[in-house]
Each structure stands twice: as structure tokens, then as C-alpha cells.
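During the reporting period the student researcher (J.K.) took over the structure-prediction task from the postdoctoral fellow and processed the backlog of single-chain submissions. One of the processed entries is reproduced below for the supervisory committee.
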Amino acid sequence: MPSLRARNRARVRHEIQDAAWRLFAEHGFAAVTTQQIATAAGVSTSTYFRHVASKEDLLLQPLLASSADILAAYAARPADEPVARGLAAAIRGRTAEAADTDLRRWRAAMLTAPELGSRVTLIADADRGELVRLAADRHGSGLVVHLVLAAAEYAYSRWIDPSAGEQSLVALIDAALDETLTGDWR
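J.K. obtained the following C-alpha cells:
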């Protein structure tokens, strides 16, 4: 169990993130100041900067954490499991863990920051490399990792597209992974 200090840091970080996402969705990413976020979260500006490196961090950090979670989930899968099936299960599991309301709130906030779009990715480069290495160690090739990730990232890009309307990320990921694992193209 995390220490009281770690739990308090996580709580404050969550309150700051929650306030930021709400403000970004309401006023736009560029229009919101760090002072406004700190005030809305009920913390001082100095406390804000102890927990957050930048406004961008509030939108991009959850992706890095999710990427690391997918890597850890895949690494914990049985070594003899086919790569596509194991990685798909890791991606599905992590996506399903995220609360739909949190996903929708993050998406609404993110849509106000199109300048960050090129930095948004389902899997960080370092985690992608580690997934390929794990798959190659287990099965001799990491190629399938790229295929499965491409399917998940396709679904993710459809979900984040502002013209796509409100769709479920979980449903889009499931459909893309199902097509990759069992589709007629194979």
C-alpha cells in the first residue's frame, strides 16, 4: 500500500488534473492559465508546480501512464501465448480499466488542444520498443506487435477525431483488435 504522502500527492495531482480538464473543455486549452487551474483545484500556484511540470503534462501524462500499464500487462502474460492475442488482451484490459466518464472528459479537454495532437499516442516510443523486444524474445519476431498496435492506434485516432462524434473507445478498440485477430483479411 502506498504511503500516506504518496496517496496525498496522488490526490492533489488528481484534483489539479480534474480542474484542468474541466477548464480546458469549457474555455479551451490555450485560454486557461496555470493560476486558473490552481485556483479551481484549491491549491497554490507553487503547489501546482510541485505536482505538474506544464499544462501539456496534464493532457499527455495519462497517456504515458497508460502506455506503461499496457507494457506491464503484456509482460505479465504467459510467455507461450501468441503475441497478437496477448498484446490485444493487454490493450483491451487497460482500455476497459479507464472509466468512460474520465475518457470522455479527457477527450473533451484534448479536443481544445489540437497543437498537442502530434504528441498523442497510444504507446510511447520506449514502450513500443520494449514490446517488440519482449515479443522477439518470446517468439523470434516483433512484427506482430506493430500490426496489433496499428489496429489499436487506428481505433484511437478515430475516437479522438472531432468529426467522429461520441463513440466508445472500448468499442472501437475491440472492433479493431477483433478485425486484426480474426478478420477476413487474414
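The committee noted the following: The first helix runs from residue 4 to 27.
J.K. will present the remaining backlog at the next meeting.
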